[in-house]
Write a structure and sequence with these properties.
This protein is α/β, with parallel strands linked by helices and 465 residues long. The chain is 40% helix and 19% strand. A 9-stranded mixed beta sheet has the order 3-4-5-2-1-8-9-12-13, sandwiched between helices.
């Protein structure tokens, strides 16, 4: 079986969040099951290639003939080919989706072009697949272009985040040169929606956790009609993580390696982290790693900030995103010297160091389709404190129910604070149970094996129709 992934991100080449992680690791697990997998992503500025293109052609798109070059690489430590779609006017820019708080206004064209180029290149390279696996609104139009092309292949659309739907004004859509019937798939009004067209034309829809599949059927964020119409064809498959990239035994970014049997390395990472960041040693370290957006529950942290600090914790936050949150955190760092550190950068190295060195990872998400950082934390013996939503609910169970972390239900500062207070109490008063809880998290299986098998079943099912 041959599968072609088409996506806006693939780690380590292009990553803004978990989408990049998934596209950079799931294909390797599928490959281990014997599937042939190929990946198409744009060639962004950060990864200008040293290589010669393996293919060049031109594409009539948005009213002109445009040159496309395809460069080839591989996912690290694998034989999974990655094809970089090179079209500098669209992709040779500082950002993946935009700059600062501003998305690029021509994102519809940029990602529609990716779909067109991938379809064309798959044919020309002789790798036409049984399945195209597309991800989020960016590549949701691929099945529409596939229909217009008149060639056969099945399409799986994975929703990583329903909050991003790809709405653009009609004149922008008209540049795509789609037939009136195809255009109507994206809606009727003056604003049309890329994800809607994909949800109507993909052969099957998956989401990145079972709970999120239920949640979007209960509240479809404006796409309720189409989601409910296809309810039988929405499958929730919990993400895995790259267990080689995230392995405390061999992680090269952290200061000392460690395992569940011997946690001395974790204590070393903790001390070193606190030293590097100028924080006090005698308080539990609560960390947050992620995009600073409403989704991630930053409003709870802001609203409860002084009460949070009154629990006697060190707070370390690594993240970039909306300036209203960043500004607050910068101020907070000044108000709480030696207790709060805010690293306003995107750094893979610091993500690893913080997750290895922290005692607890806080994820008070408003919603969370899956979430990967809580799984990284569990694997590193860092205990997650999460709100019960989406994939967080599917991966973290409260310690009072025999689980692996601390869970709260209500989206209120009080609920979050009471879960954190329980965590801090355990840290201060019961080192033995704390250690057992760390070990429990580390013993979990977060690999892609199970999910890859589920995707393989999904592929087989639609091929047999
Ligand atoms: P989302 O995709 O919603 O952002 P996930 O938990 O699925 O959330 O994935 C986020 C990914 O991005 C993780 O790999 C996390 O480590 C990474 N990440 C987020 N912010 C940063 C940052 N500032 N520096 C380094 N890595 C980050
Ligand atoms: C999205 C979601 C996140 C998920 C990731 C990978 O970015 O916000 O919860 O883990 O996709 O599927």
């Amino acid at each position: 079986m041959r599968v072609v992934f088409v996506a806006a991100e693939a780690a380590p080449y292009a990553k803004a969040g978990g989408l990049g992680d998934v596209v950079g690791s799931l294909p390797k697990a599928l490959r281990s099951l014997g599937l042939e997998v190929h990946i198409f992503v744009p060639l962004y500025r950060d990864h200008r290639p040293q290589t010669e293109p393996i293919l060049s052609f031109s594409l009539n798109f948005a009213g002109s003939s445009r040159a496309v070059r395809i460069h080839q690489g591989f996912l690290p430590q694998s034989d999974v080919p990655v094809y970089f779609v090179d079209h500098p006017p669209y992709y040779d820019r500082p950002g993946i989706y935009g700059e600062g708080d501003q998305d690029y206004p021509d994102n519809l064209l940029r990602f529609a072009f990716l779909c067109r180029a991938a379809l064309e290149a798959a044919e020309k390279l002789g790798i036409w697949p049984d399945i195209f696996h597309v991800h989020d609104w960016h590549t949701a139009l691929l099945p529409v272009f596939l229909r217009e092309k008149g060639k056969r292949a099945k399409v799986v659309l994975t929703i990583h985040n329903l909050a991003f739907q790809g709405w653009y004004p009609r004149p922008e859509w008209e540049k795509l040169g789609l037939s009136p019937e195809s255009l109507a798939l994206a809606g009727e009004g003056e604003w049309l929606c890329s994800l809607r067209a994909g949800l109507r034309t993909a052969d099957i829809i998956t989401t990145v956790s079972p709970t999120y599949a239920q949640e979007i059927l209960a509240d479809g964020l404006g796409l309720d009609d189409i989601l409910r119409a296809r309810a039988e064809e929405i499958v929730g498959i919990l993400n895995g993580i790259d267990t080689e990239e995230w392995d405390p035994k061999q992680d090269e970014y952290i200061w000392a390696n460690y395992s569940a049997e011997d946690l001395r390395g974790k204590a070393f990472n903790r001390r070193r982290l606190l030293f590097e960041l100028g924080l006090s040693l005698d308080a539990p370290v609560v960390a947050m790693v992620g995009r600073l957006t409403e989704q991630k529950g930053l409003d709870l942290v802001l609203a409860g900030f002084d009460r949070l600090m009154a629990l006697g914790i060190n707070l370390v936050i690594l993240g970039t995103g909306e300036s209203r949150y960043a500004d607050f955190l910068q101020e907070a760092e000044k108000r709480w010297p030696g207790r709060v550190r805010f690293l306003a950068i995107f750094s893979e190295v610091w993500a690893h160091r913080i997750i290895a060195g922290a005692d607890f990872l806080l994820m008070p998400s408003r919603f969370e389709p899956c979430g990967l950082t809580q799984m990284y934390a569990l694997r590193y013996g860092t205990i997650p404190v999460v709100r019960a939503t989406g994939g967080l609910k599917d991966t973290v169970v409260d310690v009072e129910e025999g689980g692996n972390g601390f869970v709260f239900e209500e989206f209120t500062p009080e609920a979050m604070l009471s879960a954190l207070a329980r965590a801090v109490r355990l840290w201060r008063e019961d080192r033995k149970s704390l250690l057992a809880l760390r070990r429990k998290g580390m013993a979990g299986d977060y690999s892609w094996d199970r999910a890859a098998k589920s995707y393989q079943e999904v592929y087989a099912e639609i091929l047999s129709r």
